[in-house]
Amino acid sequence: MNRNDNIDAGEIARFSAMADIWWDRNGEFKALHDINPVRLAYVCDRVDLNGKQVLDVGCGGGLLSEGLAAAGGRVTGIDMVEASLMLARAHTRAGGLPIDYRQTTAESLAEEEPGRYDVVVCMELIEHVPRPASILDACGRLVKSGGDVFFATVNRTWLSWLLVIVAAEHVMGIVRKGTHAYRKLVRPEELKQWGQAAGLHFENISGLRYIPLGGYAALCRSTMMNYLMHFKKRTTP
């Protein structure tokens, strides 16, 4: 598969323009900084990362990659925005974490390294690509038999449209306008179906509550807005 098959040029341009502010905790990625400890804890509560081969799909500037590495994972981070990867490499060098950052897609890497990774995480990416099911298929091929795959995304509901798009992007301005397109948001039942089609067994879903004022983030029962999902690769006989 051509690695450009599942790329939105507009999304690449948007995140390229924002690449230099990835590590600005009070900038336009503040929300990701606020929810990152919750995302990391969701993974670490379900998998012991120590010594594991971990792949971060859509790693951006390396926020989650660094947390996964600090938790003991042997991390590879992939993204298609070269400017973000350059910043991620520089930040990682400064912190002394051994993370391998590569400019490639999950689909291309799945052809090169099928079944290499113990843990695959893909957070806040599938709502930014033309064919999200293709990402799940690739993650299913990348993970080892019996391994774990984690996703995080935004549900396609009236509440997420109101709060994530209208309020966050257009009223409060805490997220750059155009970051999210409602039609590209993914419902949990869609994500679960794509995962099962990719040979992944559904393990868990949890909602994520985020209150920008004060930076409060925590897991919750409601999946009406943000949510995380955990799969396991079916063990082959």
Automatic annotation (TrEMBL):
Q: Which Pfam families match?
A: Methyltransf_23 (PF13489)
Task: State the UniProt keywords alphabetically.
Answer: Methyltransferase, S-adenosyl-L-methionine, Transferase, Ubiquinone, Ubiquinone biosynthesis
**SUPFAM superfamilies given in the database record:** S-adenosyl-L-methionine-dependent methyltransferases
Provide a GO biological process annotation: methylation
Any single GO molecular-function term of the entry would be:
polyprenyldihydroxybenzoate methyltransferase activity
Show the CDD domains listed in the entry.
AdoMet_MTases
Q: What is this protein called?
A: Ubiquinone biosynthesis O-methyltransferase
What is the gene called?
ubiG
